[in-house]
Give the backbone structure.
Amino acid sequence: MPAPATRHPCLWHGTPVLLLLLPALATALGCANLRTQQSTFNWHSLQLLNDMAPSSPPSCAQHDEPLPFPDTLLAIHDPQQAATAVLRILQHLFTTLSNETIPAHWDTHAHQQLLNQLHDQIQHLQQCLPGDNTHFKSQGPRNPWLSITRYFRRIQDFLRTHHHSPCAWDNVRLQAHTCFQRIHHLTRTMAD
């Protein structure tokens, strides 16, 4: 006759603690190679931007206005600040591209995939960054956070000025392409 099974009380007492630690462990492991994940995300996002509208309508030449990307962001050398800048840019891109007035010639499936990826990456970065990621040493016109906000405000103004026309949206899509190129530069600064 087999011996009665003995319970191991130590295991049962540790289970709630383990269950509480699992989400933190999963987040920590997901943030361990943030730079690599961000680089992959950037590449996929550029692909989706190209898939959304492979070519601009030929009549859009008059809507090409330079909207220069803030050069203050290229001077960021701190990994934490670079990650925060990437997060801010992605948040603004998501808000801009979520607009309901997107042109009919854009591929809706690619557009929706891009929005989903942006949303997921924003959530991922928010989990990986410390709670107070708003501080930056410089203030005034050279403050990168203000520069990001102004840049996207100019994009919104451009869309309004051109009545959210398909050509204006194609210009914005090109601006998003530039954003992902600049994000790539910031990603190289991020810690892995």
In short: Confidence is low (pLDDT under 50) at residues 21-29. The two ends are 57 Å apart (CA to CA). The longest helix spans residues 166-189. The helical segments are 9-31, 34-52, 79-97, 108-128, 144-161, 166-189.
